[in-house]
Design brief:
single chain, about 400 residues, alpha/beta, Nucleotidyltransferase, domain 5, 2 domains, 15 helices, 13 strands, binds adenosine-5'-diphosphate, EC 2.7.2.1, ATP-binding, magnesium, Aliphatic_acid_kin_short-chain
């Protein structure tokens, strides 16, 4: 059963053991198929594919990324579960890449030079960039004649002024080794910034906005006139607000203490800060906000503490970014927690009346189409805006490939 409209843009998010994909129609209005291939190279690999309103799951060996890409294409062109007759119907591919360093200030059409520059960024994101690159190489092998675009999580934050992105360390670390604040979740923040402006009916280049991307990873972003001017995650992916399993801001002095006094190795400390801290570390129960909220409700004191800390750290960033921006027009919540937890939004906004934010508790429980959760009288708008990183990648892919085609014509 094939779809009537021709889907042409394939969006790829390739991780070390996962491959996520979505297929968009040219007008970017419809996602005709999406899938997740997980546990690549491990036991129990799974291929999930959703199209025509139903989901198909198969557990099958997927020993490497090449097999994963082949499995994806098999499903996309399958006469039953597929949405295209032939892979040649895909006219552009968009890839997510985590780290573009200071080399990539915006999305780019992929060529050999872009790949070489992306390889130079690997030391800055050794866990994330290599699988992103594998995805690009595989997609180019399977679709050699199709233009491909890469969209970077860091690129949106490249507009931060020097005083916001340079650390107060010896300057050579910045000038010679590129050690600085980069920020992440930029693709989400860019999408939400534009969408929030549209929902407010105001031009994006006239707004001071703080975006709270609250998911498993957390980014608080200060945006002035559509440009990111400060962001809570820094050089690696630890800093800012506590996350599902990551600590967020801690005094770097504790690393030396843990190493020298408690005998922990650097590897142990890194694993602890990355995998055993945050909501999980404090609650001792879970990295999942839903579970921590449920257990706090049931009387778990450490879960309650984790929630208080999460709200407090977020509120401190909102306050400091409102000061950095010199005012605030809109406070926007997005991602899993930001979009779905009214109680966490209420906790965070509790003391923000001084910023002109007054929450409407009914609207906060069930935000309407305009996303507003603040009262009509609230001087500053508070909103919930669902993020869509894949759509942002598809938008960039369409824009850049059309531009390249027009230039070649
Ligand atoms: P990722 O960073 O992996 O993309 P998500 O944006 O999907 O993460 O967010 C995952 C987080 O959202 C988890 O902590 C999850 O518990 C939380 N979440 C999802 N739905 C709800 C909900 N209804 N209430 C509270 N938290 C929720």
């Amino acid at each position: 059963m094939l779809a009537e409209c021709s889907p042409v843009i394939l969006v790829i998010n390739c991780g070390s053991s996962t491959l996520k994909y979505q297929l968009y129609t040219t007008d970017l209005k419809v996602v005709t198929a999406k899938g997740l291939i997980s546990k690549i190279g491990e036991d129990g690999s799974r291929v999930e594919h959703a199209a025509h309103g139903s989901k198909h799951v198969r557990v099958m060996p997927v020993p490497d990324h090449h097999t994963a890409f082949t499995a994806m294409i098999d499903r996309l062109i399958d006469p039953e579960v597929g949405v295209i007759k032939d892979i040649s119907e895909v006219t552009a591919v968009g890839h997510r890449a985590v780290h573009g360093a200071d080399t990539f200030v915006k999305s780019s059409v992929i060529n050999d030079e872009v790949i070489a520059k992306l390889e130079e960024c690997v030391p800055l994101a050794p866990l994330h960039n290599p699988p992103n690159l594998v995805g690009i190489v595989e997609a180019r092998k399977l679709l050699p004649d199709v233009p491909q675009v890469v969209v970077f999580d860091t690129a949106f934050h490249q507009t931060m002024p020097e005083y916001a992105h340079v650390y107060a360390l010896p300057y050579e670390l910045y000038s010679e080794h590129r050690i600085r604040r980069y920020g992440f979740h930029g693709t989400s923040c860019r999408f939400v910034n534009q969408r929030a402006a549209d929902m407010l009916g105001r031009p994006v280049d006239e707004l001071k906005m703080v975006i709270c991307h609250l998911g498993n990873g957390v980014t608080i972003d200060a945006i002035e006139n559509g440009r990111s001017v400060d962001t809570s995650i820094g050089f690696a992916t630890f800093s800012g607000v506590m996350m599902g399993t990551r600590s967020g801001d801690v005094d770097p002095g504790l690393i030396f203490y843990l190493n020298k006094q408690l005998g922990m190795s650097l590897g142990d400390i890194e694993a602890m800060l990355y995998k055993r801290s945050g909501l999980l570390g404090v609650s001792g129960i879970s990295n999942d906000m839903r579970e921590v909220e449920e257990r706090a409700e049931g009387g778990c004191e450490r879960c309650e503490l984790a929630l208080e800390m999460f709200a407090y750290m977020t509120r401190k960033y909102i306050g400091s970014y409102a000061a950095a921006l010199g005012g605030l027009d809109a406070l926007v919540f997005t991602a899993g927690i930001g979009e779905n937890s009214p109680s966490m939004r209420a906790r965070i906004c509790e003391k923000l009346g001084f910023l002109g934010i007054a929450i409407d508790s009914d609207a906060n429980e069930a935000p309407g189409d305009d996303g507003r959760i603040s009262t009509r009288a609230s001087r500053t708008a508070a909103m919930v805006v669902p993020t869509d990183e894949e759509k942002m990648i598809a938008i960039d892919t369409l824009r850049l490939t059309e531009k390249a085609r027009a230039a070649a014509a």
